Amino acid sequence: MVSDQYRSPEVDAFLAALPEAQRDALQRLRDDIHALVPAATEAISYGVPTLILHGPLLALGATKTQCSLYVMRPKLVAALRASLAPHQASGGTIHFAPEDPLPPAILERIVRERVFENEAAAVRRSERRRK
Questions:
Q1: Are 21 and 98 a contacting pair, CB within 8 Å?
Q2: What global pTM score does this model have?
Q3: What whole-number distance in Å separates Cα of residue 1 and Cα of residue 44?
Q4: pLDDT tens string 2-39
Q5: Tens-place pLDDT, residues 43-70
Q6: Which of 40, 46, 36 is nearest to 14 (CA)?
Q7: Do the Cβ atoms of 91 and 61 come closer than 8 Å?
Q8: Please, what's the b/e burial string for 4-15 (b: 16 or more CB within 10 A of its CB; e: otherwise)?
Q9: How far is residue 69's CA from residue 57's CA, in Å, rounded to a whole number?
Q10: In the beta sheet, which residues pair with residue 59?
Q11: What is the set of domains in the chain, with CATH numbers?
């Protein structure tokens, strides 16, 4: 369960409007990401729930039949392509059926790498401001 401190009413409303299978799958994904990054906040960005830590970290989406994890880094998705099967991936997005979520080890790797990228970018921004 997402801590109320980081829960966004807008994200709650987005998920509530989805069909049950997609809503449940994305809520589990949301909870799993927050378990890995408890300090991540939430917002709706570009029309989808986005988890934020030093900038956009990951985003969640759904269609009538599948769910999406927007990784926002095509190179990272490409590097994981072999281990993502049978899930589909295109660009910086991974698509999956609600009944076939991403394996925890893959999700953990994605989250860990995105956190590292965002923290490194935050350090670079901070250093530029000091100059």
A1: yes
A2: 0.91
A3: 19
A4: 556 678 999 999 999 999 999 999 999 999 999 999 99
A5: 999 999 999 999 999 999 998 889 999 9
A6: 46
A7: no
A8: eebebeebeebb
A9: 11
A10: 50, 70
A11: 9-130 (3.90.1150.200)
Q: Are 95 and 87 in contact (CB under 8 A)?
A: yes
The pLDDT of residue 25 is 97
Residues with Cβ < 8 Å from 1, sequence gap 6 or more? 31
Q: Are 9 and 54 in contact (CB under 8 A)?
A: no
The DSSP code sequence of the chain is: ---TTT--HHHHHHHHTS-HHHHHHHHHHHHHHHHH-TT-EEEEETTEEEEESSSEEEEEEE-SS-EEEE-S-HHHHHHHHHHHTTSEEETTEEEE-TTSPPPHHHHHHHHHHHHHHHHHHHHHHHHHHH-
Q: Which one-letter amino acid corresponds to residue 59?
A: A
Joined together, the tokens standing for residue 97 give 């059926």
Only one residue has tokens 């965002």, namely 118
